[in-house]
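Risk mitigation, structural track. In case the binding assays with protoporphyrin IX containing FE fail to produce interpretable data, a predicted complex structure has been prepared as a fallback.
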Amino acid sequence: MAELKSYRVWDPPTRWFHWINALCVVGLVALGYLMLHGRALEISRAGGLKLKTIHTGLGYIFVFALLIRLAWAFVGNRYARWRAMLPGGREYLTALGAYLIAFFSRYHKQYLGHNPVGRLSVTAMFLLLIVLALSGVVLAGTDLFYPPLGHWMAHWVAAPGVDPATLVPGASNLYDQAALASMRAFRRPFILSHVYGYYALVAMVGLHVLGVVVTEIREGGTLISATFTGNKIIAGRPVDAEGDG
Ligand code: HEM
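Fallback model:
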């Protein structure tokens, strides 16, 4: 039987991001669900505004963590970088084919970083997180006049003679109605991307968790504990061990 060996894989910023992001996503999805079904759940207007404000506050933490992680992919260790995350490069399709063939046979190929299927799932999740972050920041500007866009939005919709700094969400007497209608048209594609992004992210997170559990059971290893400790303990030689390119 091959000897077990411990490898250092996930660096601290990658691990911190993973769990901060997971907590933020759970919170944002739960609050988003309540807002989306506010009428059916008989949530009052004031309650809805409170939910939106808490959701947006958590959203800024989520955006901040995401920006740091996107930057870290340029400077982090080899497993945290774009090259190890994105499904591209000359050898990627060959590696994907070899991984799938091995996965459906009794033999399996072990990776320290993301395996070729994991790369697809990580890329899809990052794209969805970026869509939700960008659309969320626009909605925070148009709905609550929060930075960085709120200042311009308030100037856009304030009725003549109303100081844009005094605008409050929902106080329609303070708005210029024609400008408000234009702003609503402007925000429509963002709300659609936000809501469809939410459905797609919920589905992707489900697939991600399923993939991790199946891989952990089939391949052994320490996939889940490595997100806390940073170390993977593996028998045999992983495909992407240090010195293999
Ligand atoms: C994982 C990330 C996120 C998820 C899953 C998510 C999900 C949702 C959902 C389901 C809604 C309800 C839409 C509706 O009521 O029509 C919503 C609304 C909203 N979200 Fe997010 N969101 C995320 C991130 C963010 C971020 C980063 C921000 C801003 C910083 C943000 C700001 C808002 C705002 C302002 C609304 C209210 C839109 C409205 O009432 O029309 N969200 N979000």
